[in-house]
User: Fold this.
Amino acid sequence: MTSMGKTRRTMSVGLIGAALALTLAAPARAGETPTAAAGWQLTPTGTDARFRGLAPVDRRTAWAAGSKGTVLRTTDGGRSWRNVSPPGAGDLEFRDVEAFDARRAVVLAIGEGEASRVLRTEDGGATWTESFRNTDARAFYDCMTFFDHRHGLALSDPVDGKYRILSTRDGGRSWEVLPSAGMPDALPGEAGFAASGQCLVSAGPRDVWLATGGGATARVLHSADRGLTWTATDTPIPAGDPARGVFGLAFRDRTHGIAVGGDYRKDQPSPSAGAVSTDGGRTWNPSATPPPAYRSGVAWLPHGKAAALAVGPTGTDLTTDGGRTWRTVDTGSYDTVDCTADGSCWASGEKGRIARLATKD
Assistant:
């Protein structure tokens, strides 16, 4: 976080557990930049790739996946990053990564037809194995999620009028397309957004949600049986255009969820860019004070029940009431954000930006 001018007050947000405390400055007066005792601390990545895929494991270990087939890994809390990109992957666009520990990770490349692929490593990125390559020209995979070390899903835009779901039961070593009988029809023009690795998220052993946009309404679909059957619910986040909809989801349990999105075009406003669910996604209510602009990533802060961060190209916003109201706490550009159970938060985005949330002692 940069430091210029004076702030009116500071706000402390406690994160119960360990010795983690987060102190963020209040928004500054017009024309000023917030000052904070703690905030995003950029780490040296040595690349200009754009990282929309991010998978922190704990305070020391994190993985990032991005453009130009780039995959990075740190095991020292971001003080240094090792380039562990798969050989020959320079033409691939990695948009999601799911990591189990410092050695095992799965990355998703997006695109039409064979551009959509899944690769897996079991040795910290020293070697990679391609475990899935899309052979259907109609499919375009956007993001993935794992319930545990073995069971995971990947999401494709609609094929024959329904979202396609890919499933693994062995940690990403092999994949199969699930039957579509339990999937509701997609709306005309509806699709997922491969913007932050958060268009498909899970909580617990069986619950999973997918985010949509581009159709007449922005929807969230929910499955309680690992992707076999789904129900769809409208959200108040505006859609009706290929650039609008829900871009990121976060559930801190199978009940409490936050959705963020808007219009990703720089010259377009994004009113009602946040929504909240307290019933597992069956209903969504608009944030009373939403993020002020398009946001693509969102994450619950660890060990708390009401604090979360949302990020996008124009800044980071904080909520301390479960997503009902948001306030901007940083103006740096990030595409995605994630936090770990042991109390660390990370964000990544354009021009090689990967940051860790530095906290006040």
